[in-house]
Amino acid sequence: MHLDCVIVISPWCRPQTDLLWQKEDLLLQPRMAQHGTQSWRRVQTTIDGGASWTADNIIDASAWLTGSVRFKDELHGFVLAAEAGRGHATSDGGKTWTSVPICDPWLAGWFRFSADEGIVVSGISFCTASGATWPPKFSCKPSVDVDADGPVFVLGNHSAVVGGGDISPTVSGWTHSQQQDGTWNPRVSLPWPVRAFYFDSNGKAGLAAGGNFFSGVGGLHATVDGGNTWTLELNSGAEHHAVVTAPTTTTPAGASSTLYTASCARDGGKIYRSSVDANL
């Protein structure tokens, strides 16, 4: 059986909803992936495209695993136990894990590998680890926004975009784009919290997914200038937590990619799909 992607949706529907492609977030070996179980303290492994899974590997006995398990190659991976202010790193493809202190008693559930294969973690602080050492060693600065930072996406031009938002007393969202000299541009306001980013390889064209489950708002905003400005792309009335792309395909008409996003609402969830020019 060949499995194109793995969809992980928590019993609570949010915020652990995730949609992950093997050759990006979950790569261990071809058709080998890991995902969090309902306790969010353990991982399982599949080598047959998801038809069967190994016994639970408990890697944190006292804290939830939050967000994605991501690998930068077949051996080196990382997962957050964000509410405990730590992560867990593996250097043997997920067989064993080492606890890694970060900085804060609470972090957001998002992280990304950086351009030098280090790690960027957002939350009450903005934390980075160089790719020169493994397990990663983190240093932290104050959050980019006055609110705790949400998801971060590292762009190909040695800059980044970070997002976030509030659901009380009003529902709102925001993003900040980073310049190549490291400074952050002022806040750009959006109508709902940002939960996830996707950008193509040029670091200019991208999508911000988000929303609020309880108030029934959400969808996608698009940018073509690296996050400096955004326009509404999809208003689904539901919360979104992931945007991923399938491998690029080439036809006589040119190269294209397929984007997917998963939504979650009180009446259930949906998967949205769109084909885009791979050269954007």
**Helical coverage, percent range:** under 10%
Reading the helices and strands in chain order gives EEEEEEEEEEEEEEEEEEEEEEEEE
What is the approximate shape?
A: globular
Strand order of the largest sheet: 6-7-8-9
Strand tally, please? 25
What structural class is derived from the secondary structure elements? mainly beta
Straight-line N-to-C gap: 32 Å
Calculate Rg over CA atoms.
18 Å
* Major beta-sheet overview: 4 strands, antiparallel
Poorly predicted tracts of residues: 1-40
Strand fraction equals over 45%
Number of helices: 0
Please describe what this structure looks like.
- This protein has 280 residues and is mainly beta.
- It has no helices and 25 strands.
- It has strands at residues 5-8, 18-21, 33-36, 42-46, 57-58, 66-71, 77-81, 86-90, 98-101, 107-113, 119-123, 125-129, 138-142, 152-154, 160-166, 172-177, 188-190, 194-199, 206-212, 217-223, 231-235, 239-245, 249-251, 254-265, 268-277.
- The strands form seven sheets. Strands 6-7-8-9 form a four-stranded antiparallel beta sheet, with no helix packed on it. Strands 10-11-12-13 form a four-stranded antiparallel beta sheet, with no helix packed on it.
